[in-house]
């Protein structure tokens, strides 16, 4: 792997300088200098053996469910009143995206705050979980598998869910399908198309200054940030095979998303999203050879995140739904629209954070997930 990283030749600075403005990542993608910096750090300052040792400190398990080897981290707080919760990532995330929440939500020993027993799986086709057994595998199928993980493999009678990105699609399907076992859900993204400015205006919704920025971030993504989505959804083989054995190619494709979709203040408190974290995530994708299988989730769920008539969707459950908008996320749903899809009991806006909230603002995310305890019936 190191040889491949070292020997990858990037374009000349002169070629690129005439074609991109300084830090013009929203219009042209990742900058050449940023990619060079990441490549250099990967070669000279990143020790996978050290990262692997840190990852191995978590309690990892695998269980075969419906032909899939499901990998998950299980972090038990030791509190008999702890709420079981499953934390679901999306693309280009991984279970690593959720691990900063372990010490915040599952502290060892008694505590006066709400605590949780955490289950952090790798979505089928991602990381250490094997690929789905059929080509038409959907987020609803993954939700069914994860419900079996929680209830049959781990023996939880009731549990909560947190999800983002594709994890919000899986989590929402669980919230809808398994309303006797999923008794609370927290999301930072919805599996429905974000409302347009016209949709928002039609409901006479007044946005706060922070929400205006969030809505503009969504508009920027819709107009110039979703090319990857179309490629994944229509030609997953092409992009998958092109980057399969190219670590620097995966670094450019994945690293761009971490940089652009996150809070511009990334790497400063409370964010822990540094170059090192990006390199950890890309290393996991490359070393587990899961890039191709991960992008297939788009082709298998082409209706995901499409425009929705919000008067015609509502989860079949009375379980509480909690939602947090992070200011610099790439999708934005005002409170009125989130309330249309579930039993919304809490809607919060966080000024700091973006798409990868577990890395962008883990403390704020943990606080909002902990609010589940206000509505949980033991």
From TrEMBL:
| Coiled coil region boundaries | none
Specify the Epoxide hydrolase N-terminal domain's residue ranges: 13-98
What InterPro entries would the database entry show? AB_hydrolase_fold, Epox_hydrolase-like, Epoxide_hydro_N, Epoxide_hydrolase
Q: GO molecular function terms here?
A: epoxide hydrolase activity
Annotated active site: 165 (nucleophile), 298 (proton donor), 355 (proton acceptor)
List this protein's GO terms for biological process.
Answer: epoxide metabolic process
Any Pfam family hit? EHN
Q: Which UniProt keywords apply?
A: Aromatic hydrocarbons catabolism, Hydrolase
Family per similarity comment: Belongs to the peptidase S33 family.
What is the protein name given in its UniProt record? Answer: Epoxide hydrolase N-terminal domain-containing protein
Organism the protein comes from: Xylaria hypoxylon
Classification of source organism? Eukaryota, Fungi, Dikarya, Ascomycota, Pezizomycotina
